[in-house]
């Protein structure tokens, strides 16, 4: 039996829409895929389209030290405060792509437990970063405005690495898990107890415009990162990369021009709730609303 859905139309007239019509609405799949580049890669391997890059070495606006006020760059605005500070650190065994320059860090290095937010200059489907010295407390979350989409922790990353002795790229190339251990380019290899991987997030069926980096509200460890990138237009993630995991977000109805405004708003509210469903949790102490 099909139960009708009711809403108020123009002039307060009660209108009914059979649930069978709802079942006929076209739906789209939404997902966010997490890729890692081949071992020893410290910058984005993606090609094509238009890239916007941000690193903490060649940019003279980032000198070693603690930053506690907002900083706007081409890639977007870093929301910073005394409780949510960004530390720029000279290269060492934990970070600094190419074994030179500087890298960004929070947690132990900044001495603050709050997350930092990067409000991207424009919505995107791609964000990449060199995630160095991956620690279980680290966390990366993606948002569409205030709507939480997903979070992957350093602990999740480590578990995915440890699941097998080899990782298989999209083109079939196999990489030894141990090739990701230790800082690339150092001889002898430094900090061989932690993984280093250029990590990319690709969204299908939606865009995101906020990236939140957290360290699970602790300063007992650090979260190190470098070489941010967003891309727009037509671009490719090469076959040499590994699809590490994929976050499926519940499929939602496509809007239709004949749906009354009241129903469209109700559906949008339902969509935002459904998009947050699943096993993902918002980052602790992020200061970010979850919609």
Architecture overview:
With 291 residues, this protein is mostly beta strands. It has one domain: Jelly Rolls. The chain is 10% helix and 46% strand. The protein has helices at residues 19-24, 154-162, 261-275, and strands at 4-8, 14-18, 27-36, 47-54, 65-67, 71-73, 76-79, 86-90, 102-107, 116-124, 126-132, 139-144, 147-153, 166-168, 174-176, 181-183, 190-195, 197-204, 208-214, 222-236, 242-253. Strands 3, 4, 5, 8, 9, 11, 18, 20 and 21 form a nine-stranded antiparallel β-sheet that branches. Strands 6-7-10-19-12-13 form a six-stranded antiparallel β-sheet. A hairpin with a 5-residue loop joins strand 14 (166-168) and strand 15 (174-176). Mean pLDDT is 84; it is low at 1-9, 12-25, 251-279 and 286-291.
What's the helix and strand layout?
Elements: E1 4-8, E2 14-18, H1 19-24, E3 27-36, E4 47-54, E5 65-67, E6 71-73, E7 76-79, E8 86-90, E9 102-107, E10 116-124, E11 126-132, E12 139-144, E13 147-153, H2 154-162, E14 166-168, E15 174-176, E16 181-183, E17 190-195, E18 197-204, E19 208-214, E20 222-236, E21 242-253, H3 261-275
């Amino acid at each position: 039996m099909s139960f009708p859905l009711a809403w108020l139309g123009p002039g307060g007239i009660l209108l009914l829409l059979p649930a069978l019509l709802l079942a006929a609405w076209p739906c789209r799949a939404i997902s966010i895929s997490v890729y890692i580049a081949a071992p020893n890669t410290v910058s984005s391997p993606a090609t094509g389209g238009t890239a916007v890059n941000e690193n903490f070495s060649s940019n003279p606006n980032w000198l070693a030290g603690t930053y506690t006020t907002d900083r706007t760059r081409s890639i977007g605005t870093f929301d910073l405060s005394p409780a949510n500070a960004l530390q720029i650190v000279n290269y060492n065994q934990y970070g600094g792509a190419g074994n030179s320059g500087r890298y960004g860090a929070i947690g132990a290095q900044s001495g603050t437990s709050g997350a930092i937010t990067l409000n991207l200059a424009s919505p995107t489907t791609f964000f990449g970063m060199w995630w160095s010295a991956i620690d279980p407390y680290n966390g990366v979350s993606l948002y569409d405005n205030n709507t939480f989409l997903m979070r992957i922790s350093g602990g999740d990353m480590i578990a995915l690495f440890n699941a097998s002795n080899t990782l298989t790229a999209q083109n079939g190339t196999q990489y030894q898990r141990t090739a990701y251990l230790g800082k690339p380019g150092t001889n002898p290899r430094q900090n061989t107890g932690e993984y280093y991987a250029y990590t990319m997030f690709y969204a299908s069926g939606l865009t995101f415009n906020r990236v939140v980096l957290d360290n699970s509200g602790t300063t007992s460890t650090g979260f190190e990162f470098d070489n941010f990138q967003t891309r727009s237009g037509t671009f490719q993630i090469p076959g040499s990369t590994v699809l590490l995991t994929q976050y499926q977000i519940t499929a939602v109805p496509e809007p239709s021009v004949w749906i009354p405004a009241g129903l469209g708003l109700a559906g949008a509210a339902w969509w935002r709730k459904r998009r947050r469903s699943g096993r993902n949790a918002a980052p602790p102490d992020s200061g970010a609303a979850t919609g």
